[in-house]
Amino acid sequence: MVSIPNEPVTEPDVVRRLAGTARLTPVWRNGLGGVTFRTDDGRYLKYGPRNDETSMDAEAARLSWAAPHTRVPRLIEVGGDGTHEWLVTAAIDAESAVAPRWIADPATAVRAVGEGLRALHEALPVDGCPFDWSVPTRLANAQARGLQISEPLREPPPVERLVVCHGDACCPNTLLDDGGSWVAHVDLGALGVADRWADIAVASMSTEWNYGPGWEDALIAAYGVVPDRGRLAYYRDLWNAT
């Protein structure tokens, strides 16, 4: 389950050490058992178990690569031990698109997420991007983790437009300013070159998880394209399967 914690969260020793004298507030829990903490001195500390899908080293590399082209958190430190890993970044003066104020105003949040995703795709250069998020790469990663891939997923639709995808374009990973405009993106551990519909499909699908039904096409309209139902269906199935 991915959520904003509403119960007390144990502060791991490593996180407490990284925080120093700063006070910690848990702000996000992911489905792998990881927790992100905010400090009162302007940092975010992400801590979680190692997993085979991605890594915080991978996210650190992608943050460093993307930073000259679009706004992402500034990397401070990345590290790990035999079982867990951590990432420390500088805070950005903005809120997640699923903060309570934006859950209560889905029209503003959904528009910002769609516009922000289009801006990200336009800003990041495909030429020279060292990271790949193509269907073959994703299927190979899933198979290496022991997942069974259905035959229809082995036949993706032709690429409509290659971009550098976010890789986890769910609504929580867009940050909004006080006026409801997008300002930055976070959680870039899977960033890489792929068909833009791989991101659009997941971003629009996630609107129902966060704001309720009826917002998928509004996000796609804010992105600036007409819904491609075939590609949307394929990339949503791929996301759910991998």
From TrEMBL:
<feature type="binding site">
    <location>
        <position position="187"/>
    </location>
    <ligand>
        <name>Mg(2+)</name>
    </ligand>
</feature>
<dbReference type="InterPro" id="IPR011009">
    <property type="entry name" value="Kinase-like_dom_sf"/>
</dbReference>
<feature type="binding site">
    <location>
        <position position="173"/>
    </location>
    <ligand>
        <name>Mg(2+)</name>
    </ligand>
</feature>
<comment type="similarity">
    <text>Belongs to the aminoglycoside phosphotransferase family.</text>
</comment>
<dbReference type="Pfam" id="PF01636">
    <property type="entry name" value="APH"/>
</dbReference>
<keyword id="KW-0479">Metal-binding</keyword>
<feature type="active site" description="Proton acceptor">
    <location>
        <position position="168"/>
    </location>
</feature>
<keyword id="KW-0418">Kinase</keyword>
<protein>
    <submittedName>
        <fullName>Aminoglycoside 3'-phosphotransferase</fullName>
        <ecNumber>2.7.1.95</ecNumber>
    </submittedName>
</protein>
<keyword id="KW-0808">Transferase</keyword>
<dbReference type="GO" id="GO:0005524">
    <property type="term" value="F:ATP binding"/>
</dbReference>
<feature type="domain" description="Aminoglycoside phosphotransferase">
    <location>
        <begin position="44"/>
        <end position="234"/>
    </location>
</feature>
<dbReference type="GO" id="GO:0046677">
    <property type="term" value="P:response to antibiotic"/>
</dbReference>
<dbReference type="InterPro" id="IPR024165">
    <property type="entry name" value="Kan/Strep_kinase"/>
</dbReference>
<keyword id="KW-0460">Magnesium</keyword>
<dbReference type="GO" id="GO:0046872">
    <property type="term" value="F:metal ion binding"/>
</dbReference>
<keyword id="KW-0067">ATP-binding</keyword>
<keyword id="KW-0547">Nucleotide-binding</keyword>
<dbReference type="GO" id="GO:0008910">
    <property type="term" value="F:kanamycin kinase activity"/>
</dbReference>
<keyword id="KW-0046">Antibiotic resistance</keyword>
<dbReference type="InterPro" id="IPR002575">
    <property type="entry name" value="Aminoglycoside_PTrfase"/>
</dbReference>
